[in-house]
């Protein structure tokens, strides 16, 4: 399984435009905030080499790295991939919704929409075939996620505690600790997830 953002592992102009947009946004925000690469690296806890690759549009970072860089810059991942809220209504066409993760078995996570700024809310849609899983080391303190299972059974593991969410059920989970989403059954799994990360 890969926890990498698929802006560079896929092919086509749309994918390339996403990686270029991320590169341009990071450069612009860093310059606007007068941050050197060294300072951003220290603030985000991400290597300077990774930041250089991101700014060149050459990196294939994990979702966790994008989250760290976005948090260090006071923006959301949704802003970085241009699915963030704007004044009034910002409509994102289906073709413009990015896939930010794919698994070895064909699972996928799409960031449908999100808010701007350091206080952020994101709406995701995940699909996991049998045997697929995704692991996160945890988000900043106070982060929580809302889940709704559309099809199948989601095994949610939060800080070592396993919970099975069946089709039609919903849950709220604290995700500022290590957590995983897994499909441990023999049928496809799809679920929506909302992440709320509020600055304290």
Automatic annotation (TrEMBL):
One Pfam family recorded for the sequence: Cupin_2
Residue stretches making up the HTH cro/C1-type domain: 26-80
Keywords tagged on the record: DNA-binding, Transcription, Transcription regulation
Organism: Franconibacter pulveris
CC annotations in GO: cytosol
Source taxon at top rank: Bacteria
Gene3D superfamilies: Jelly Rolls, lambda repressor-like DNA-binding domains
GO molecular function terms listed in the Swiss-Prot or TrEMBL record: DNA binding; DNA-binding transcription factor activity
Lineage, top ranks: Bacteria, Pseudomonadati, Pseudomonadota, Gammaproteobacteria, Enterobacterales
Protein name: XRE family transcriptional regulator
InterPro entries: Cro/C1-type_HTH, Cupin_2, Lambda_DNA-bd_dom_sf, RmlC-like_jellyroll, RmlC_Cupin_sf, TransReg_Diox_bact_type
Coiled coil stretches, renumbered: none
């Amino acid at each position: 399984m890969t926890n990498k953002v698929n802006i560079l592992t896929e092919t086509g102009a749309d994918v390339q435009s996403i990686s270029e947009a991320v590169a341009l946004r990071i450069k612009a925000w860093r310059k606007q905030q007068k941050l050197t690469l060294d300072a951003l690296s220290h603030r985000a806890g991400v290597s300077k080499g990774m930041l250089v690759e991101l700014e060149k549009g050459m990196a294939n970072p994990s979702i966790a790295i994008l989250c760290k860089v976005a948090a260090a810059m006071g923006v959301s991942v949704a802003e970085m991939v241009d699915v963030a809220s704007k004044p009034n209504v910002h409509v994102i066409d289906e073709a413009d919704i990015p896939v930010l993760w794919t698994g070895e078995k064909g699972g996928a996570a799409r960031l449908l929409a999100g808010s701007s700024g350091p206080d952020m809310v994101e709406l995701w849609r995940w699909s996991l075939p049998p045997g697929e899983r995704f692991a996160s080391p945890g988000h900043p303190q106070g982060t929580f996620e809302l889940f709704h299972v559309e099809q199948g059974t989601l095994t949610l593991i939060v800080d070592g505690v396993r919970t099975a969410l069946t089709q039609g059920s919903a849950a709220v989970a604290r995700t500022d600790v290590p957590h995983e989403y897994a499909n441990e059954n023999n049928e496809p799994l799809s679920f929506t997830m909302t992440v709320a990360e509020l600055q304290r």
